[in-house]
């Protein structure tokens, strides 16, 4: 493992094709990408361990990507990893506004921390994990929105 | 019943004057309007059957409007009705952004489905069912925001 | 020509694949689509007659679409055509906010007028005629953004 | 107490440096500022009495500011105080859109009521009580975001 | 003239019913309102002197309102008037974002300066001077958007 | 010069403290930063050569930053430099929406091109070159918004 380490945090409940697209872009730009799955306080559809397992399964082909769960403050997690860069995908104006606010607060907690925003391919610009969960709950086809491995996990769940 | 069938989905918890305005506009533009009341997973103020009954009572004067409840995927409901057009009212930038995202995902689930956005009269551009529920909960006057029949339902509730 | 007449106004300087997508959607929803090319006061790249000719050439395969230029108030044009529906494509939050404002003012000028908003396919959600002109001006490839006939017009221009 | 009375409502769960900044600005513009702490139906981190106590402790040095809790409709509270002006701080586009909607509905409930929007110093433009609670929950340093007295309350809580 | 002086700046090219609504609200909240008509570098439809004259004619019934033209930096104008408060009307998210940016820069130029944002009545929430000029230019009816005195000025112009 | 080359394009008319902040952040993240000053078709305050000279003067202390002018398509410029990453600063929702659109179109012109968005320090989040030019034109103090060297250039200009 050489080169710059970046952290791509999220709930990934579950990992979508849009998340995967951002991971691939980050992995092409930076030396090592830590996909950091947040424990999250809200009722998640999948428990943390399963969200980590799903992401690891999907992203396994990418040599410079690792997947870990975390349940601390993001700024502390990034510092503990010796990293300084957080990557976030932004699709909408609402995403951007919230993310920019978070990035500023994180900079105050850890002044060396820089948040780098990427946009997914337009193909994935409307894919939302929240809507994917709704579709799966109603028995709809989610194969266009999530990686194949995730379809299986969703089917077992419902 | 002749002409194009369109589906106007929503939670309608409860139906506001803004919703009624959109139904009237849709009924003037298209042959038949199906007001589709979503079961919704969130804790609704009114149960589905009552939301359907309220909407039916209010919209009864409109000859080409019918009200039904549904608890499936919207795309599946629209297809099952033999329809291809969904109507949505948009008031704010936040509404629009979320609705556009949903419309794109629905198009992937059912490629023939088109979502048509209408704007309510400016008189209703700030009316929100969420705020109406808050006002009613505190015993405020909601007669300017919801049809008369809905005022009675809200009074019985609180 | 039977069925509902709708007007799709714009500057179309030049017609993009995104505009074409909206025309196709409108033509599938309504009986007759009048693509109304606005004279526009700003310095257009193509004169009105050429913008009309380009749009007519591209849209010629669509049987229920006609292309005309106009230099009056949109509300007056729509009324003169005996129409009541304006179609507009919206891609961004900024588009939507301006278009909703315009729709409200047009409703005051002509109370029967309804503006119906459609979203283009996500493939075209970032295509902007302004950016297309910039690319063409610098000799860039615009074939991914405009119909083939428009590429030729742009090449003759620069 | 002389001069115009204004009401600055909020949940203040807890009071942040951004809220304090808005109170100071309101207190410089108007004769008397009532900081009105809303009971709120959502699960608050601090109970109403503690939120009132915290705000009162922090704002005690400001002679023309008082802090009270309320559990009625805001429009009714403002009228009962004999006031006509509500002050709200806005940081983001999303804040503004929601606040403008609320202001319009409040005007209908109480036509004399005017909502006046202020922007905080840019130093506080990203401070959010929601994110502060998240940071405190994870044991992070919140001293840059909330007044010193609030840090102590948060530490006792977690 | 007693009480707080506020400055309401703008181009007012021409004064609309929306502007008039904001002036009335400001005049109800504050002791004295200076409507400050900016010279503006862009090609205005009406020269500065005429914009001042139109605004003065329309606002003449309001005892605590005065109209003046200015061609200096707004922060300098406000300071020279001995005022500390600028009033701005905001209708849209785009308005708000630009105005908030300007307010922050003005605070840096003149730290005592506070910008207070008001929202117009929803009746005027879509009225834009830019669109009014377009309508007047095409001979459309502007009587629903501008005060009667302004209609006459627009008719003489076109 | 080793490490990843990134291009930070803009008009820089003139370079502000906000631009300088983004350059410093980019220079800390990447091996080499090319500040690419666009010729721009709009009437710029400073001619291209002077904008390049100003930026070069201000950024001279940064060892891994170079400043060049360009008058081609951005995607072509980036490719010609052998680079794949464009850096853009975003302050507002409107900025973000336009930049995301541009990033998508640039990706179609040059599929390897990735646009990376950074946010400036909140101190600079309201600094706009357009407003700086307005202030300077009216003889206002711009020293809080632009680097010292730029103040001198602006003074000579007005």
Write the layout of secondary structure elements.
Six copies of one chain form a homohexamer.
Chain A: E1 5-10, H1 17-29, E2 32-38, H2 48-59, E3 65-70, H3 74-80, E4 85-89, H4 93-109, E5 114-118, H5 129-137, H6 148-157
Parallel strand pairs in A: 1-2, 1-4, 2-3, 4-5
Structure description:
The structure is a homohexamer of 158-residue chains. The first copy, chain A, is an alpha/beta fold. Chain A has one domain: Rossmann fold (3-Layer(aba) Sandwich). Chain A has a 5-stranded parallel sheet with strand order 3-2-1-4-5, with helices on both faces. Chain A is globular. Chains in contact: A-B, A-C, A-D, A-F, B-C, B-D, B-E, C-E, C-F, D-E, D-F, E-F.
> At the third CATH level, what is the topology name of chain A?
Rossmann fold
The average pLDDT of chain A is 95
Instruction: Compute the separation of the termini of chain A in Å.
Output: 39 Å
Rg of chain A (CA only): 15 Å
CATH architectural category of chain A: 3-Layer(aba) Sandwich
Number of helices, counting only DSSP H or I runs of 4 residues or more of chain A: 6
Going across the biggest sheet of chain A, name each strand in turn.
Answer: 3-2-1-4-5
CATH superfamily of chain A, called what? HUPs
Quaternary: homohexamer
What is the helical fraction of chain A, as a range of percent?
Answer: 40-55%
């Amino acid at each position: 493992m050489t080169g710059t380490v970046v952290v791509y945090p999220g709930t990934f409940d579950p990992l979508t094709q849009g998340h995967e697209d951002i991971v691939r872009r980050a992995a092409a730009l930076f030396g090592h990408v830590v996909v950091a799955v947040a424990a999250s306080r809200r009722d998640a559809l999948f428990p943390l361990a399963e969200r980590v397992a799903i992401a690891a399964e999907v992203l396994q082909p990418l040599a410079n990507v690792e997947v870990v769960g975390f349940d601390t403050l993001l700024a502390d997690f990034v510092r503990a990893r010796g990293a300084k860069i957080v990557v976030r995908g932004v699709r909408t104006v609402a995403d951007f506004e919230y993310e920019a606010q978070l990035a500023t607060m994180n900079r105050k907690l850890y002044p060396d921390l820089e948040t780098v925003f990427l946009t997914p391919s337009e193909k994935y610009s409307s894919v939302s994990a929240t809507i994917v969960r709704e579709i799966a709950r109603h028995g709809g086809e989610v194969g266009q929105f999530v990686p194949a491995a995730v379809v299986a996990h969703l089917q077992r769940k419902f």
